[in-house]
Design goal:
By secondary structure, the protein is α/β, with parallel strands linked by helices. It contains 14 helices and twelve strands. Keywords: Signal, Transport.
């Protein structure tokens, strides 16, 4: 897991998510036509795709105009890849398909999708060789360098907002609905959002009726750096933190966080200061090193109440903590399942 310090995150949020975790090295190149998204959810989908010209405003006030809803879409970030698949469309190109398959299991990427390399440095020649009619990118300002680079190829570019600590859940849904509008899949998006809201309400009621030892919690991930363990709590303004609080839990992390993603940085001693909070952490093993194995060896870690009392829970593998509605549903299910087991 590649990392950034909080100071760096505060001044340069552009690369925070791209290098936050799960980055794999891949060289683009699958010229085969991608297979259709034949997931069970999409196989049963009866929603219609709109037709006619499209004119939408993206996350940074840029007008994106299409002669018709986009069909051949290239995507450079995992949430947006997941979103497109949830809308029952298969992208023609994605960034870091191997990493996506490891970290995001909410939607399976069909075979034949061209891999254009890393999310931070995609191979643009390979990307535009797939003949997309729309490129979806995650950006942080309207003047982002990646937008300028993509616009040189005379293909419409839809810029979505990577994160918004003011309301991360709504930002996640807004991104999903923006992609739906660009592809004419608004009817499908309405079904997905309704399902998400219904599952959230159902889960909230289930937790309210459960005998939970404490409603205080911290979700974290981390990495091994120079032989030391660095821990990243998901604080106020993080999607993971806010989903937990939507369920009626209380995020116990009160340390400094970056203003976009709500992510903190601490060590084992810092985590020992959150009182009796229950711990949750990613169950996906980072190829760069297993932080959980290192934590288990540490005496101070094992004396923290959540660990000592057996209230430190691994999420199922492959739940992307910066994903779309279907990843968010996986998160909700994991919180409830682990707290009521």
């Amino acid at each position: 897991m590649k990392t950034r310090s909080i100071a760096a995150a505060l001044t340069a949020p552009l690369a925070l998510l791209m290098v936050a975790c799960g980055t794999t090295d891949s060289e683009g190149g699958n010229a085969e036509a991608p297979e259709a998204n034949d997931s069970a959810d999409c196989a049963d989908d009866t929603t219609e795709t709109a037709d006619g010209p499209v004119s939408i405003t993206d996350s940074y006030g840029r007008t994106v105009e299409l002669d018709k809803p986009a069909e051949r879409v290239a995507v450079l970030e995992w949430q947006q890849t997941e979103d497109l698949l949830t809308l029952c469309l298969t992208p023609v190109a994605v960034a870091d398909a191997e990493g996506y398959a490891t970290w995001d299991t909410a939607e399976e990427l069909p075979a034949g999708v061209t891999d254009v390399g890393t999310r931070g440095e995609p191979n643009l020649e390979t990307l535009f060789g797939t003949n997309p009619d729309l490129v979806i990118v995650e950006a942080y300002t309207a003047e982002d360098e990646i937008i300028k680079q993509l616009e040189q190829y005379d293909v419409p570019v839809l810029a979505t907002k990577g994160a918004d600590a003011a309301d991360p859940v709504q930002n996640m849904l807004d991104t999903f609905e923006l992609i739906a509008a660009a592809t004419g899949r608004e009817e499908r998006a309405d079904v997905v959002v309704d399902d998400f809201n219904a599952s959230l309400e159902e889960a909230k009621e289930e937790l309210a009726d459960a005998d939970v030892p404490t409603d205080s919690f911290v979700y974290f991930d981390g990495w091994i750096q120079g032989g030391n363990v660095a821990i990243r709590p998901f604080g106020q303004g993080s999607l993971m933190g806010e989903l937990g609080e939507e369920l009626g839990l209380t995020n116990a992390w009160e340390g400094e966080v970056d203003p976009a993603y709500g992510l903190g940085q601490t060590d084992i001693e810092g985590m020992s200061e959150v009182g009796d909070a229950t711990f949750f952490y990613t169950g996906t093993t980072d190829p760069a090193g297993d932080i959980n194995a290192e934590l288990a060896k540490n005496r101070v870690w094992n004396q923290i109440p959540a660990v000592e009392d057996g209230r430190s829970y691994a999420f199922p593998e492959g739940i992307w903590t910066f994903g779309g509605p279907h990843s968010a549903q996986q998160v909700i299910d994991a919180y409830v399942d682990l707290l009521t087991q």
